[in-house]
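assembly run, all chains below
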Amino acid sequence: MNYQFQFDAVFAAWPLLLKGTWITVQLSLSATLLGLVVAIFCAWGKTSGPGWLRFIINAYIEVIRNTPFLVQLFFFFFALPAIGLRWSPQTAALVAMVVNLGAYATEIIRAGIESIPKGQIEAGRAINLKPWEIFRFVIIKPALKAIYPALTSQFILLMLSSAVVSVISADDLTSVAANLQSQTFRSFEIYIVVAAIYLALALAFSALFKLIYKRTLNYPDRR
Amino acid sequence: MRTFGFPEFLFILEAAKWTLALSAIAFVGGAILGLAIALMRTSESGWARGISTVFIQIFQGTPLLLQLFLVFFGAPVLGLDINPWVAAGVALVLNSGAFLGEIWRGCIEAIPRGQWEAAEALNLRWRDRMRDVVLPQAFKIALAPTVGYLVQIIKGTSLAAIIGFVEVTRAGQIVNNATFQPLIVFSVVAAIYFVICWPLSLLAGRMERKRARALAR
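ok done. output:
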């Protein structure tokens, strides 16, 4: 092996890498928050909505979970503009991520809701809480504790799979890497550094999520 | 300009063969690697646990797309001649090895401690303990999540399109560039993945419920 590693060009571009990292983090966080809103609605619809709504939600979940994220991204970026919905790569990326996470998170949240003992919901009804109050205080809060680990690892999976949005040039970390690659031709060095940044992000977020859990959700279960 | 017709549909459908072939490579290679990783993760040797943990951290903590790029752009650096076939195969095997290894570690650890102790009390060596006592039981638990993970592998092969490997997604891009009918093209592409993956998802779900019922009894 007589390859000369040259990381100078990569590190010279650190402001760009930093910006790409920030966009990846921003994109992942906002897609997760919006996706959770979608998922909570879908989880409600799936557990207590009317039959037709349940059918639509089920179809949405099955289609998203059984097709690749890349194809979903192409669909939102190339197909929808063809019928008049024009948007930037960033918006298309965000929408694709929200729709994708929404489907996975619905199943996680539903599992959380189903982990709540029936008696607890009946108790809520008995003290005359309105249905949405029961959903909010009796179901969602304790369910959140049960599903927290699954949700946070879903976030990290989403953040990593968001690298794919670089194929539509959504300015994320991997897009920055691709641009640098075409300017410097130091592909291997660039992708090693960028992979290391993703690894650092994944480890940092999982440590942060553990800390948040310890501080906020680590109360004892009362049974 | 061509319009989307039966030949275009057939072209995309034909490419499903390569999606399936790549998935098979990723699954078989990943299963062999994954078994080794799972055994290392549950072994008594500290260095084996350390190496396998680092391996899993790296491959679960970085995007599959970048792993693909690193193999594709890294192999020439090491003086190896590489085509998209090999690059996609190697990257997908490494990635699924890490995920299957972690799934199967959970299954091995789910076997009650008493079973291990009983095997030890019978003076079975580590190899016999694993082969005759732990793995057959872990296999049953592992079946449903493994079928479920197969869906992830099949979806993951779509990334090979980005390095120019012609499978379903890449075939869709090619047809789209020729016809400019993205709505129908990418619907067809999505439908092909769905037809392959959905039965597997249903099967995994059914196996999961069956096992849950067996456990509840």
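The CA atoms of residues 9 and 188 of chain B lie 8 Å apart.

The helical segments of chain B are 6-41, 46-61, 64-77, 84-109, 113-121, 126-156, 168-179, 182-216.

not gonna interpret more than that til we talk
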